[in-house]
Amino acid sequence: MTPPDARLDGKTFWLDVGDGHVAVEQIGSGPAVVLLHGWTLDRRMWMLQARALAGRFTLIALDRRGFGQSTAQPDRAREVDDLARLADQLQLESFHLVGMSQAGATAIAFAQRHRARVASLVLQGISLAGIPDHSNASDRIPLADYAEMVRLGALASMKRHWAGHPLMAGLSGEAAEIGAAMLADYDGRDLLAGAAGPSARLESVAALTVPVLAITGDEDTPWRRSVTQAVARTAPLGQARFVRAGGHVCNMSHPQEYNAALSAFLTRPLLPVPSAVND
Fold it and tell me: Kind and range of the H or E element at 182?
């Protein structure tokens, strides 16, 4: 097959995942960092990280099944296996893993099932079951309504509604152009495939044994900020960071501060794991 088009000015290839292919792009040199995008997005959401961090890290961004250039059928339950295939193909013994929003559940599940392969975990603006929402669901995503709109052929209307959602707010300039391009290419096939799959649960975070950075903008929705704080409190080696004036997609809206926080976390001195974690 012809390799997928480059989106980050890197090297692209297809990853065979059995029922299709996942588009993967690699750029840079140094410690490996695998980047998982959020819902309706694709690997282009990491363009501003690729531009700034490729001199320090090997960035590996993929279009999750059902999104972007990937041809594999949407199936959240299979994404952990897709990551394992990717690590095997690239011979990655250990790497840093970044999961944004919806992909946070995949990142946590992979860290649980393949603990030796995850050097650290970054969870950006994720959802988490078991955290009370005291903000009256300010960031609720009406997935059932959106799915019905797509089934009725109203994809354009669905995307206009989603573009005005609080979770998509705060983009301007180049970031807004990138966001608009990703949304324009989103085709709704994951909504037609059925339920999106469950969020991770708080007890899953408590079982993580790797360093965890929970990060989002300080203007993300109140519930996402609460989840970010809960992850930092609950993960044995967790910490939180809030990007000043950033929203849910703070890596795009405020890349300089986000990139500095990410780089500092990934290059921090390694600390001994508490003995209680090893028992």
Answer: helix 173-185
Cβ atoms of 28 and 259 within 8 Å: the answer is no
Q: Backbone phi, then psi, for 23, in 5-degree steps?
A: -80, 130
112-145 burial string, b = 16+ CB within 10 Å, else e? beeeebbbbbbbbbbbbeebebeeeeebebeeee
Describe the crossing of helices 143-151 and 155-163 by its angle, rounded to 10 degrees: 150
CA angle centred on 51, ends 102 and 20, rounded to 5°: 45
**Burial category of 182 from C-beta neighbours within 10 Å (exposed 0-12, middle 13-18, buried 19 and up):** buried
Which amino acid is located at 114 in the chain? H
> Going by DSSP bridges, is the β-strand pair 32-36/95-100 parallel, antiparallel, or unpaired?
parallel
Q: Note the pLDDT of residue 97.
A: 98
Q: Considering the entire predicted model, what is its pTM?
A: 0.95
d(CA 191, CA 90) in angstroms, rounded, equals: 31
CA pair distance 243, 8, nearest whole angstrom: 23
Residue stretches of the chain with pLDDT short of 50: 273-279
Strands 21-28 and 58-62, how do they pair? antiparallel
- Residue 94 token pair: 């250990």
Quick check: 188 and 150 in contact, CB under 8 A?
yes
Determine contact, residues 222/134, Cβ cutoff 8 Å: yes
pLDDT in tens, 202-257: 999 999 999 999 999 999 999 999 999 999 999 999 999 999 999 999 999 999 99
Q: Quickly list DSSP for 19-42.
A: SSEEEEEEEE-SSEEEEE--TT--
Helix 104-113 vs helix 79-90: angle between axes, to the nearest 10 degrees?
Answer: 60
Query: CA 99 to CA 117: how far, in whole Å?
Result: 15
DSSP-assigned beta bridge partners for residue 62:
24, 36
| Amino acid, res. 109 | A
For residue 220, give both structure tokens: 């993300």
